[in-house]
Design brief:
By secondary structure, the protein is α+β, with helices and mostly antiparallel strands. It has helices spanning about 15-40, 50-65, 70-80, 85-90, 105-115, 120, 160-175, 180-200, 200-215, 245-250, 255-275, 310-320, 330-335, 345-365, 380-390, 395-400, 410-425, and strands at about 125, 130-135, 135-145, 145-155, 220, 235-240, 280, 290, 295-300, 305, 370-375, 430. InterPro entries: ABC1_dom, Atypical_kinase_ADCK, Kinase-like_dom_sf, Prot_kinase_dom.
Length: about 450
């Protein structure tokens, strides 16, 4: 819980303050490398684990004080087990639930700026300590009459520092992700757009209502109600959803039937959005879901939504048709459209990357090739991680100086990666509901 973590009395808000924080962190990381290589001279067998531990701690501590876009990027990276060494995964995962919260005086100041009064003048009760704190905001519990609310408060300065923070975090991302600058720049614009949207709480309330209403018919889902009169550009008030996060719920040893019911609701929720709404809740990390009584799944955060362009949708989702993998001409055209290959590639590069993407699609598309899929099959996930590891370390892949894949795929890939991981955590076996055109 956030109130067990030391509270912050202030956040670096100006560009100079935030840049200074990054510079001091860079100096610490540099010092860690010097110490590591000095120790290695004495002990040549020393591996990089202790270096990763030191760097992960220093970087996370810095990002957690800055909040905002930089911490959000850490959270995103922690979801991919192939992306970072284990020490970074373990530390950055904390951004999903337990970043250091703001102190109460800063919370009061935010309320006064947006409502002209403090939270205790608006609500009958309001927790002085946050019950959850993450990358962009923190949540307090409040009551008014018989209503129990979740009140999400955005950290000061986060909305104004998205662009400058991403520039500052760039050197860390290049080193941690082992990407070249061209690849990183190809996707940074997409990340910036989504992060700017995430700081717009008025937009979040609009999208929350729109998607909640459009998904209300799906069995075993629950969405909070949002309250305009108690919300603003930086504060959202919604119903408190009572229940457990997935890890806590799994610790209660739920039955297979219960796990399958929750997993089915999750799958149906995502596929209705993708194929019928052409937009999707693109932040499927465990902190955004609550499992309630009777195995009902509560969806509590619509800050990150990816609108899916129609031309991208048709190319991307046609790849789940198994027969397409043997139709070279059609597959070539789709690979060009999705920017997996380009005219700049040599014949050798084109052949190599076609093979790589066909192998990836064949494996990742398995749930779509059957009517029912068991996500508790750890062997399936081991295959995914081994393939990712093999490809990312392949010399041909590493020497390519070109970004691979449309920018629109960044958040869709992230969504499916997160969805698969959540279903694996649930150990769920589900009917893999498909769009009509795939049946």
């Amino acid at each position: 819980m956030a109130n067990q973590v030391k509270e912050q009395e202030a956040i670096p808000v100006s560009k100079v303050q935030r840049a200074a924080k990054f510079i001091s962190t860079g100096a610490k990381v540099g010092g860690n490398y010097v110490k590591h290589y000095a120790k290695k001279m004495v002990n040549p067998a020393l591996d990089k684990e202790s270096l990763h531990q030191s760097n992960a701690t220093d970087i996370y501590n810095s990002l957690s004080q800055l909040k905002g876009s930089a911490l959000k990027v850490a959270q995103m990276m922690s979801m991919d087990k192939n992306l970072l060494p284990r020490a970074y995964q373990d530390k950055f995962t904390m951004a999903q639930y337990s970043a250091p919260p703001l102190s109460y005086p800063l919370v009061v100041k935010t309320f006064q700026q947006h409502f002209g009064k403090g939270p205790e003048q608006i609500f009958e009760t309001f927790t002085r300590s946050a019950v959850n704190a993450a990358s962009i905001g923190q949540v307090h519990q409040a009551t008014k009459g018989e209503k129990l609310f979740a009140v999400k408060i955005q950290y000061p300065g986060v909305a104004d520092s998205v662009s400058s923070d991403l520039k500052l975090v760039r050197p860390f991302a290049l080193r941690l992700l082992n990407m070249n600058e061209k690849e990183l720049d190809h996707y940074m614009g997409e990340v910036e757009e989504r992060l700017v949207e995430e700081t717009d709480y008025v937009l979040e309330v609009e999208r929350s209502r729109e998607i909640s209403e459009a998904c209300a018919h799906i069995p075993n889902l629950n969405f909070p109600k949002y309250y305009d009169e108690l919300s603003s550009e930086r504060i959202i008030t919604m119903d408190w959803i009572q229940g457990l996060h997935i890890k806590e719920w799994m610790d209660t040893k739920p039955s297979k039937k219960s796990r399958n019911q929750v997993g089915q609701a999750l799958w149906d929720f995502y596929h209705h959005q993708v194929h019928n709404l052409m937009q999707v809740h693109a932040d499927p990390h465990p902190g955004n879901f609550i499992i309630q009584e009777n195995d009902v799944l509560g969806i509590i955060d619509f800050g990150c939504v990816k609108v899916i362009p129609e031309d991208f949708y048709h190319g991307y989702f046609s790849l789940i048709k198994r027969e397409l993998l043997i139709n070279e001409e059609e597959l070539n055209q789709i690979f060009y459209t999705l920017e997996f290959i380009s005219d700049k590639d040599s014949e050798v590069e084109q052949a190599y990357f076609k093979g790589v993407f066909k192998e990836m699609i064949s494996l990742l598309g398995k749930p779509f090739h059957v009517d029912r899929f068991d996500f508790s099959d750890d062997g399936f996930f081991e295959q995914i991680f081994q393939l990712g590891d093999r490809i990312s370390n392949d010399k041909m892949f590493k020497k390519s100086r070109q970004a691979r894949g449309s920018r629109h795929g960044l958040y869709i890939n992230r969504t499916y990666f997160g969805l698969y991981n959540l279903l694996n955590q649930l150990q769920a076996e589900i009917d893999t509901t498909k769009p009509d055109w795939l049946k």
